[in-house]
Every structure is written in C-alpha cells, then in structure tokens.
Task: structure prediction
Amino acid sequence: MADQQKIHPVPDVEAPPQTSPSVPLVPEGTLKSDKGNPVEKYPPFRRTLPPMNSKPPKKRSCCCKCMCWTLSMLLLLIVILGIIVGILFLVFRPKLPKYSIDRLQITQFNQSSVDSSLSASFDVTITARNPNKRIGIYYEGGSRLNVWYTETKLCEGSMPKFYQGHRNTTVLVLPLSGQIQNGTALITSLQQQQQQTGNIPLRLRVNQPVRVKLGKLKLMKVRFLVRCRLVVNALSANNAISIQSSSCKFRLRL
Result:
C-alpha cells in the first residue's frame, strides 16, 4: 500500500502575525507617572452657575411708598373737604351779596392857584344787601375804596367796621378825598370827554376784608372785591351830579 501523503499547511507570508490579546498594564481612566505608578485621572472641573432670571422682581423703594401714602392722604382729605362743603351748601344755601351806587356828590373839585394840582372830595352813597337767611357778614377794618377816571385816581377812602345780619340792607355814605398833581391835563380831558359824549365814565373799586358767619360759626377772614362802573353827566362842584347808569360786579378772594 502506497504511503499516504501528508499535507502540511503552509503559513501565509503576507498575512500579519497573530498576537494574543493582552491585558493592559494600566487601567483605563488612569495615567502613568514617570516612576511607573498609575495616576488617577479626574473628570474635568465644571462650575455650576445659579439660574438667572431675565427680569428681576420689582421692589418699591421707601420713597415710592411714602409718595403713594402722601397722595392717598391728600386725596382722602380733598374728598372729606368736598363732602363738608357740600353739606354746608345744602344747609345754608349761600348767596352772593349785592352792591349798588345810589348817589355821587362832589363837595370839592378845585384847582390850586399856586400849582397845577387839583383837590377832589366826593360823598358816595353805597347800598349793601345781604340776601342770605342764615349767613351774616362782619365788615372788618383795613378796607380801600377809590374812584378812577381812565387811569387817574381821583379820590380814595374806606368803609367803616360793622356787622350785617341776615337779609339786611345797609346804606353807607362814604366821604372820599384825593389830590391830583397834573390838574390842568385832567380838567382838559374831562371837558373834551363831556363835549364828545355828553357824559363822563368813572370806575369805583372796593377791597374789603370780611369774615362770614355761618350760624354760630365765624369763618376765617376773606376779601370782597367790588368793581363798579358808573356814568355821570358831569364832574363839577357847582352842578348837581346825576348817575346815568351804574353796574357792580362782586368777587371773593381768599
């Protein structure tokens, strides 16, 4: 029997040599130092930041709170005062006093022979009416009353102190006096005015401090401002003066 032929595998020269798997000397996650000892590798440091809001919460300062409190108190005070005024108005039903110029008498209207000054003295009759049922008026001292022709003050005086009761009508005769420096120019202007229109316009102004009495309550001092326009036929001490027209306006000033 013929010898059996043996087949021996021939290694592949071009194939890479097979190596057996080896266990790494240094575990994963560690480094090797120069001395050969493994060095533990830590994870990278990460800084944790607190969450930030895009819009911080609004906080009212002390100044803002104080301002809001002050405005609230002022608003409350205005409301309370409005209620009080409304109650007083309903209870007392206040009405404005009325004034009229009834008579104007010239006692002196002469020009000086020494200089061109002119001396004027008037007696003005004023009627004051208080139409209120429960309101009285105290006319205090310190009043001012004057008569004007255009921009020239002719004379001045004052009203006496007195009390005007409920629904009372008081007639006052007030003496006024004054002196005008440039009397010649004034007399010329008066003569021209009388020739052109046949009358002379005058203005009377009254500034009177008063205190109003509501029932038994006496209020603080205020001022009555009276403005009257009157037209007379002439200004002469020798002729009778007649008032052709007159009208008065009243205003209250605190």
